[in-house]
């Protein structure tokens, strides 16, 4: 179990409990580490890569934070039930009452297929992970989420920019933004804010195959952003940290663009 170095290092999320799906690598890892740095105890949810999840937890502990791993594969019926059971099991030493303050729906899969090549199974899978899982994670988590809590859904610039080559993925993120809008209205009376964060191209393992070590690809990706560079996971994590904090208490039902100004 990790321990905070000194009482002077408390942050804006001190005493808060967070769940980050897809928290073992990429943007999810950066979010988990940033929320822990700000004082939250973080459940790092992952599907299969136990080593990566444990590494994320250890990195947080070494930095003086608190975290625990939550193993639950998404995309199958009953996944939300299994996730919350794993949250209770993994967090028994940190979250004895099963309550939490922050849910970050970050886990997602992409399908790099155009309209003519996408299969029905591929379509069903991407919607199951990217839309159905967050829906039921929230549905089953509402009794756990404290009033004044935060729900942050990781969307994508693909929800608002035409990208036919990833048409199904973009559609799932559009659905997630609609989910955000309706949740914000429904949960407003409880003081719970709900927002989406929409990244553009980010230098993660998912994009490594075509981006890293390819100067032309990197230059092209950077040219799409008004700020002239490729996004980093920490760029997104810092926005999530703001939305999770009390500073963002008056922001809800919004999609926060995190593309660096793509398409301007």
TrEMBL record:
Alphabetic keyword roster: Oxidoreductase
Signal peptide: none
Superkingdom as given in the UniProt entry: Bacteria
Transmembrane segments: none
Oxidoreductase in keyword set: yes
Protein family: Belongs to the short-chain dehydrogenases/reductases (SDR) family.
Protein's UniProt name: SDR family oxidoreductase
